[in-house]
Amino acid sequence: MKLKYFSAPYLVWMIVFILVPLLMIAYFAFTGDDGGFTVKYISDVGQYANIFVRSIWLSLIATAICLVIAYPVAFILSRMEKHKQGTMLMIVMLPMWMNFLLRTYAWMTLLGNNGIINYILGLVGLGPYKLINTSAAVVLGMVYNYLPFMILPLYSVMEKIDKSMFEAADDLGCSSVQTLFRVIVPLSMPGITSGITMVFVPAISTFIISRMLGGGSNLLIGDLIEMQFLGNAYNPHLGAAISFVLMVIILVIMTIMNQFDPDEQVLM
Amino acid sequence: MENIVSLQNIIMEFEDGEQILKNISLDIKDKEFVTFLGPSGCGKTTTLRIIAGFLEPKSGDVLFEGKRINGMPPHKRNVNTVFQRYALFPHLNVYENIAFGLRVKKVPEKEIVRRVGEMLEIVNLMGYEKRSVNRLSGGQQQRVAIARALVNHPKVLLLDEPLGALDLKLRKEMQIELRKIQQELELTFIYVTHDQEEALTMSDSIVVMNNGSIQQIGSPTDIYNEPVNAFVADFIGESNIISGTMPEDFVVEFNGRKFECVDSGFNAGERVDVVIRPEDVKIIPADKAKLTGIVKSVVFKGVHYEMIIDGKEHKWTVHSTKAESAGSMVGMNFAPSDIHIMKKTEE
Question: Taking the model in full, what pTM does it have?
Answer without folding.
Answer: 0.80
